[in-house]
Amino acid sequence: MKDILTAPFVKEMMDTTANMYRLGWDERNGGNISYMLENDQVAEYLDLNKVIRTIPTGFEAQSLIGKIFIVTGTGKYFKNVKDDPETNLGIIRIAEDGTTAELLWGYKDGGRFTSELPAHLMSHMARLSVDSENRVVIHSHPTNTLAMNYVHPLDEKKFTHTLWEMCTECIVVFPDGVGVLPWMLCGNNTIGEATAEKMKEFRLVVWGMHGIYGAGKNMDETFGLIETVEKAAQIYMLTAHLPRINTIKDEEMVELAEAFDVKYRKDFLNL
Ligand code: 13P
Ligand code: ZN
User: Fold this and answer.
1) Which CATH number characterizes residue 69's domain?
2) Is 122 found in the same domain as 75?
3) Among this protein's residues, is 116 annotated catalytic?
Protein backbone atom coordinates (compact mmCIF):
# COMPACT_ATOMS: atom_id res chain seq x y z
CA MET A 1 0.00 0.00 0.00
CA LYS A 2 1.34 3.43 -0.94
CA ASP A 3 1.61 6.30 1.55
CA ILE A 4 -1.61 8.34 1.38
CA LEU A 5 0.32 11.55 2.03
CA THR A 6 1.95 11.09 -1.38
CA ALA A 7 -1.38 10.69 -3.20
CA PRO A 8 -1.87 13.32 -5.91
CA PHE A 9 -5.40 14.06 -4.70
CA VAL A 10 -4.16 14.81 -1.15
CA LYS A 11 -1.48 17.07 -2.60
CA GLU A 12 -4.08 18.88 -4.71
CA MET A 13 -6.18 19.51 -1.59
CA MET A 14 -3.11 20.78 0.31
CA ASP A 15 -2.01 23.06 -2.53
CA THR A 16 -5.48 24.45 -3.25
CA THR A 17 -6.35 25.22 0.38
CA ALA A 18 -2.94 26.90 0.88
CA ASN A 19 -3.41 28.92 -2.28
CA MET A 20 -6.91 30.04 -1.34
CA TYR A 21 -5.71 31.05 2.12
CA ARG A 22 -2.83 32.98 0.56
CA LEU A 23 -5.30 34.89 -1.61
CA GLY A 24 -7.25 35.92 1.49
CA TRP A 25 -10.41 34.19 0.39
CA ASP A 26 -10.65 31.77 3.30
CA GLU A 27 -10.20 33.40 6.66
CA ARG A 28 -10.30 31.24 9.80
CA ASN A 29 -12.34 28.13 8.89
CA GLY A 30 -14.03 29.85 5.93
CA GLY A 31 -14.50 27.75 2.80
CA ASN A 32 -14.65 24.03 2.09
CA ILE A 33 -13.76 21.64 -0.72
CA SER A 34 -15.10 18.24 -1.78
CA TYR A 35 -13.46 16.16 -4.50
CA MET A 36 -14.91 12.91 -5.84
CA LEU A 37 -12.24 10.24 -6.32
CA GLU A 38 -12.06 7.02 -8.32
CA ASN A 39 -12.35 3.99 -6.02
CA ASP A 40 -9.44 2.23 -7.77
CA GLN A 41 -7.26 5.28 -7.29
CA VAL A 42 -8.00 5.36 -3.52
CA ALA A 43 -7.45 1.59 -3.21
CA GLU A 44 -3.77 2.13 -4.03
CA TYR A 45 -3.45 3.98 -0.70
CA LEU A 46 -6.20 2.70 1.61
CA ASP A 47 -7.85 -0.61 2.47
CA LEU A 48 -11.40 0.14 1.34
CA ASN A 49 -12.77 -2.52 3.70
CA LYS A 50 -11.45 -0.66 6.73
CA VAL A 51 -13.99 1.88 7.99
CA ILE A 52 -12.64 3.98 10.89
CA ARG A 53 -16.08 5.20 11.97
CA THR A 54 -19.40 6.17 10.47
CA ILE A 55 -20.94 9.66 10.54
CA PRO A 56 -24.58 10.39 9.64
CA THR A 57 -24.95 13.03 6.94
CA GLY A 58 -28.57 13.99 7.69
CA PHE A 59 -29.70 13.76 4.07
CA GLU A 60 -30.13 11.22 1.31
CA ALA A 61 -27.50 10.97 -1.42
CA GLN A 62 -28.88 8.01 -3.36
CA SER A 63 -26.95 8.58 -6.57
CA LEU A 64 -23.66 8.84 -4.66
CA ILE A 65 -23.83 5.48 -2.85
CA GLY A 66 -20.38 3.88 -2.91
CA LYS A 67 -18.71 7.08 -4.12
CA ILE A 68 -15.60 8.30 -2.31
CA PHE A 69 -14.81 11.96 -1.57
CA ILE A 70 -11.94 13.81 0.04
CA VAL A 71 -13.50 16.66 2.03
CA THR A 72 -12.21 19.47 4.26
CA GLY A 73 -13.15 19.21 7.94
CA THR A 74 -15.62 21.46 9.74
CA GLY A 75 -14.04 24.22 11.80
CA LYS A 76 -10.68 23.54 10.20
CA TYR A 77 -8.50 26.35 8.86
CA PHE A 78 -7.33 26.23 5.24
CA LYS A 79 -3.99 27.64 6.38
CA ASN A 80 -3.36 24.50 8.47
CA VAL A 81 -4.20 21.80 5.91
CA LYS A 82 -0.71 21.59 4.43
CA ASP A 83 1.00 20.97 7.77
CA ASP A 84 -1.52 18.44 9.05
CA PRO A 85 -3.67 16.97 6.28
CA GLU A 86 -4.75 13.96 8.34
CA THR A 87 -6.49 16.17 10.93
CA ASN A 88 -7.89 18.79 8.58
CA LEU A 89 -9.09 16.52 5.75
CA GLY A 90 -11.08 13.31 5.60
CA ILE A 91 -11.84 10.66 3.01
CA ILE A 92 -15.42 9.45 3.18
CA ARG A 93 -17.53 6.95 1.26
CA ILE A 94 -21.30 7.22 1.02
CA ALA A 95 -22.66 4.00 2.59
CA GLU A 96 -25.31 1.67 1.18
CA ASP A 97 -28.10 3.50 3.06
CA GLY A 98 -27.25 6.76 1.22
CA THR A 99 -27.37 8.75 4.48
CA THR A 100 -24.18 7.68 6.25
CA ALA A 101 -20.59 8.62 5.54
CA GLU A 102 -17.98 5.93 6.18
CA LEU A 103 -14.71 7.50 7.26
CA LEU A 104 -11.77 5.79 5.51
CA TRP A 105 -9.03 8.23 6.51
CA GLY A 106 -8.50 11.57 8.27
CA TYR A 107 -10.40 13.76 10.76
CA LYS A 108 -7.79 12.34 13.13
CA ASP A 109 -8.83 14.45 16.11
CA GLY A 110 -12.36 13.00 16.05
CA GLY A 111 -13.62 15.75 13.74
CA ARG A 112 -16.04 15.52 10.88
CA PHE A 113 -16.68 16.80 7.38
CA THR A 114 -17.62 20.41 6.63
CA SER A 115 -20.97 21.67 7.90
CA GLU A 116 -21.68 22.50 4.25
CA LEU A 117 -21.66 18.83 3.19
CA PRO A 118 -25.36 19.05 2.15
CA ALA A 119 -24.58 21.86 -0.35
CA HIS A 120 -21.50 19.98 -1.56
CA LEU A 121 -22.99 16.54 -2.10
CA MET A 122 -26.31 17.87 -3.39
CA SER A 123 -24.32 20.04 -5.83
CA HIS A 124 -22.28 17.00 -6.92
CA MET A 125 -25.52 15.12 -7.61
CA ALA A 126 -26.97 18.07 -9.54
CA ARG A 127 -23.85 18.67 -11.62
CA LEU A 128 -23.36 14.94 -12.33
CA SER A 129 -26.94 14.81 -13.63
CA VAL A 130 -25.99 17.32 -16.35
CA ASP A 131 -22.23 16.62 -16.65
CA SER A 132 -20.94 13.11 -15.85
CA GLU A 133 -17.37 14.46 -15.67
CA ASN A 134 -17.96 16.80 -12.73
CA ARG A 135 -15.66 15.98 -9.77
CA VAL A 136 -14.99 19.06 -7.63
CA VAL A 137 -17.10 21.50 -5.59
CA ILE A 138 -15.44 24.47 -3.88
CA HIS A 139 -17.00 26.98 -1.49
CA SER A 140 -15.10 30.16 -0.63
CA HIS A 141 -15.44 33.73 0.68
CA PRO A 142 -13.47 35.73 -1.95
CA THR A 143 -13.09 39.32 -0.82
CA ASN A 144 -14.19 41.33 -3.85
CA THR A 145 -17.00 38.97 -4.81
CA LEU A 146 -18.34 39.40 -1.30
CA ALA A 147 -17.85 43.19 -1.37
CA MET A 148 -19.76 43.37 -4.65
CA ASN A 149 -22.72 41.66 -2.97
CA TYR A 150 -23.26 44.77 -0.84
CA VAL A 151 -23.32 47.33 -3.63
CA HIS A 152 -24.74 45.46 -6.65
CA PRO A 153 -28.24 44.01 -7.13
CA LEU A 154 -28.36 40.30 -6.25
CA ASP A 155 -30.06 39.43 -9.51
CA GLU A 156 -28.39 36.71 -11.56
CA LYS A 157 -28.86 38.37 -14.94
CA LYS A 158 -27.56 41.75 -13.73
CA PHE A 159 -24.78 40.19 -11.62
CA THR A 160 -23.56 37.99 -14.48
CA HIS A 161 -23.78 40.84 -16.98
CA THR A 162 -21.69 43.14 -14.80
CA LEU A 163 -19.03 40.44 -14.31
CA TRP A 164 -18.94 39.72 -18.05
CA GLU A 165 -18.33 43.44 -18.65
CA MET A 166 -15.33 43.54 -16.31
CA CYS A 167 -12.85 41.28 -18.16
CA THR A 168 -12.85 40.30 -21.81
CA GLU A 169 -12.49 36.60 -21.06
CA CYS A 170 -15.33 36.34 -18.52
CA ILE A 171 -18.02 35.34 -21.01
CA VAL A 172 -15.67 32.69 -22.39
CA VAL A 173 -14.76 31.25 -18.95
CA PHE A 174 -18.29 31.21 -17.52
CA PRO A 175 -20.69 31.53 -20.48
CA ASP A 176 -23.34 29.74 -18.41
CA GLY A 177 -23.33 32.72 -16.01
CA VAL A 178 -23.55 32.94 -12.24
CA GLY A 179 -26.57 31.81 -10.24
CA VAL A 180 -27.43 33.96 -7.23
CA LEU A 181 -29.15 32.98 -3.99
CA PRO A 182 -30.36 35.57 -1.47
CA TRP A 183 -28.89 35.58 2.04
CA MET A 184 -29.84 32.30 3.68
CA LEU A 185 -28.87 30.47 6.84
CA CYS A 186 -25.89 28.28 5.96
CA GLY A 187 -24.83 24.78 7.01
CA ASN A 188 -28.16 23.01 6.48
CA ASN A 189 -30.14 20.98 3.95
CA THR A 190 -32.33 23.94 2.86
CA ILE A 191 -29.42 25.98 1.51
CA GLY A 192 -27.99 22.73 0.11
CA GLU A 193 -31.16 22.05 -1.87
CA ALA A 194 -31.35 25.66 -3.12
CA THR A 195 -27.70 25.53 -4.21
CA ALA A 196 -28.17 22.21 -6.00
CA GLU A 197 -31.22 23.54 -7.84
CA LYS A 198 -29.06 26.40 -9.20
CA MET A 199 -26.23 23.96 -9.98
CA LYS A 200 -28.40 22.21 -12.59
CA GLU A 201 -28.08 25.42 -14.59
CA PHE A 202 -24.87 27.09 -13.38
CA ARG A 203 -21.35 26.00 -12.36
CA LEU A 204 -21.09 29.10 -10.17
CA VAL A 205 -23.54 30.08 -7.44
CA VAL A 206 -23.23 33.17 -5.26
CA TRP A 207 -24.55 32.87 -1.72
CA GLY A 208 -25.77 36.41 -1.02
CA MET A 209 -23.50 38.22 1.44
CA HIS A 210 -21.66 34.98 2.26
CA GLY A 211 -19.54 33.70 -0.60
CA ILE A 212 -19.53 31.57 -3.71
CA TYR A 213 -19.74 27.95 -4.88
CA GLY A 214 -17.98 26.62 -7.95
CA ALA A 215 -18.18 23.19 -9.58
CA GLY A 216 -16.03 21.60 -12.27
CA LYS A 217 -14.29 18.62 -13.80
CA ASN A 218 -11.09 19.08 -11.81
CA MET A 219 -9.45 21.31 -9.23
CA ASP A 220 -7.95 23.73 -11.78
CA GLU A 221 -11.20 24.30 -13.63
CA THR A 222 -13.19 24.81 -10.43
CA PHE A 223 -10.61 27.08 -8.83
CA GLY A 224 -10.26 28.97 -12.13
CA LEU A 225 -13.99 29.68 -12.29
CA ILE A 226 -14.00 31.27 -8.83
CA GLU A 227 -10.71 33.04 -9.54
CA THR A 228 -12.14 34.62 -12.71
CA VAL A 229 -15.29 35.82 -10.95
CA GLU A 230 -13.15 37.24 -8.15
CA LYS A 231 -10.91 39.07 -10.64
CA ALA A 232 -13.95 40.57 -12.38
CA ALA A 233 -15.46 41.55 -9.02
CA GLN A 234 -12.16 43.22 -8.12
CA ILE A 235 -12.24 45.31 -11.30
CA TYR A 236 -15.83 46.21 -10.49
CA MET A 237 -14.94 47.27 -6.94
CA LEU A 238 -11.99 49.32 -8.22
CA THR A 239 -14.15 51.20 -10.71
CA ALA A 240 -17.75 51.20 -9.40
CA HIS A 241 -17.36 54.62 -7.74
CA LEU A 242 -15.67 56.20 -10.78
CA PRO A 243 -17.30 57.57 -13.94
CA ARG A 244 -17.37 54.75 -16.52
CA ILE A 245 -16.24 56.02 -19.89
CA ASN A 246 -15.52 52.68 -21.60
CA THR A 247 -17.18 49.31 -21.46
CA ILE A 248 -17.25 45.96 -23.25
CA LYS A 249 -20.44 46.14 -25.31
CA ASP A 250 -22.98 43.32 -25.55
CA GLU A 251 -22.27 43.02 -29.29
CA GLU A 252 -18.59 42.47 -28.45
CA MET A 253 -19.50 39.77 -25.95
CA VAL A 254 -21.45 38.00 -28.71
CA GLU A 255 -18.39 38.30 -30.93
CA LEU A 256 -16.26 36.70 -28.20
CA ALA A 257 -18.73 33.88 -27.48
CA GLU A 258 -18.93 33.09 -31.19
CA ALA A 259 -15.17 33.26 -31.78
CA PHE A 260 -14.51 30.91 -28.84
CA ASP A 261 -17.52 28.78 -29.69
CA VAL A 262 -19.13 28.78 -26.24
CA LYS A 263 -22.79 28.26 -25.44
CA TYR A 264 -23.72 31.38 -23.51
CA ARG A 265 -26.80 32.72 -21.75
CA LYS A 266 -28.18 34.93 -24.51
CA ASP A 267 -30.97 36.05 -22.17
CA PHE A 268 -28.32 37.59 -19.88
CA LEU A 269 -27.36 40.10 -22.58
CA ASN A 270 -29.37 43.21 -23.51
CA LEU A 271 -29.54 42.94 -27.28
P1 13P B 1 -16.95 24.62 7.84
O2 13P B 1 -15.84 24.99 8.80
O3 13P B 1 -18.00 23.77 8.49
O4 13P B 1 -16.39 24.01 6.58
O5 13P B 1 -17.71 25.96 7.43
C6 13P B 1 -17.04 27.02 6.83
C7 13P B 1 -17.93 27.86 5.98
O8 13P B 1 -17.45 28.53 5.07
C9 13P B 1 -19.38 27.85 6.24
O10 13P B 1 -20.10 28.36 5.17
ZN1 ZN C 1 -18.92 29.87 4.03
Assistant:
1) 3.40.225.10
2) no
3) yes
184 lines ligand 1 (CB under 6 A): no
pLDDT digits (tens, 9 = 90+) for 203-225: 999 999 999 999 999 999 999 99
pTM (predicted TM-score): 0.98
Which residue, 63, 95, 114, sits at the end of a domain? 114
**3-class SS of residue 30:** coil
Of 12, 102, 116, 156, which residue is the catalytic one? Answer: 116
Q: Are residues 268 and 175 in the same domain?
A: yes
CA trace torsion 223, 88, 72, 22 (10° rounding): -20
CB 105 within 8 A of CB 46: yes
Angstrom CA distances, 62 to 33, 132, 187, stand at 21, 16, 20
Last residue of a domain, one of 114, 139, 164: 114
User: What band does 175 get if pLDDT is binned at 50, 70 and 90?
Assistant: very high
32, 88, 185: which to mutate for ligand 1, most atoms within 8 A of CB?
Answer: 32
**Which pLDDT does position 265 carry in this prediction?**
98
CA distance 226 to 61: 25
Binding site membership of 29 for ligand 1 (Cβ less than 6 Å): yes
